[in-house]
Amino acid sequence: MALVVGIAGGTASGKTTVARKVHEAMETSGVSFIDQDSYYRDLAHLTHEERREVNFDHPDAFDTELLVAHLKALKAGRAVDKPVYDYVESTRTARTTPVHPAELILIEGILVLHMEPLRKELDVRIFVETEDDVRIIRRLTRDIKERGRDFDHVVSQYFRHVRPMHMAFIEPSKRWADIVVPHGGNNDIAIDMLVGALKSRLLKRR
């Protein structure tokens, strides 16, 4: 049976960096990786302007049923075709990415610990914590450079959607965490300790 590790935290907190460093450190083990962002609902039926106004930080923005189904398939030893999401257009593309089963499954996303059906599938629950000012600067930079947003839109979205959803859903989900990693992906000491714990658990399962 695979060991499933969920990595949650606020937007731009360093979740992906933590997942990547764990992945690299576990190179001797088979690792599958799923990002919750790939499971945004397809908004192709909306206009481009309407998509820009969608609250992407709300639980309803995600196709959680598909995500949980894919996670269960991986745990059962079956490969899945993960959706590919276009962040510039806010729609799913026609392409998919194959994800193969492995003894360690990493899943990261802002609401990984909030979604109960998803949380029930996790063996280890991680929350990545980073100061709010650092996160908003990172998000500004990312959304402008990589996702075709402008400054005013990012700031407006932050106050209308991102911050309220963080306070309502993401921050409270920290109570479900087994481990809290402060200072995001730069906390190599915490990540080293996490990797050591995961290696120990995997050895016990073999």
Q: How would you summarize the topology of this molecule?
A:
Blueprint: E1 3-9, H1 15-25, E2 31-35, H2 48-52, H3 64-75, E3 80-86, E4 91-99, E5 104-108, H4 116-119, E6 124-129, H5 132-146, H6 151-170, E7 179-182, H7 188-205
Parallel strand pairs: 1-5, 1-6, 2-5, 6-7
Antiparallel strand pairs: 3-4
Helix pairs in contact: 1-7, 5-6
What does this structure look like?
The protein is α/β, with parallel strands linked by helices and 206 residues long. It has one domain (3-205): Rossmann fold, CATH 3.40.50. It is 41% helix and 21% strand. Strands 2-5-1-6-7 form a five-stranded parallel β-sheet, sandwiched between helices. Strands 3-4 form a two-stranded antiparallel ribbon. Strand 3 (80-86) and strand 4 form a beta hairpin. The chain is globular.
According to CATH, the homologous superfamily is P-loop containing nucleotide triphosphate hydrolases
Helix content: 40-55%
From the helix content, strand content and strand pairing, which structural class follows?
Answer: alpha/beta
Strand order in the largest sheet? 2-5-1-6-7
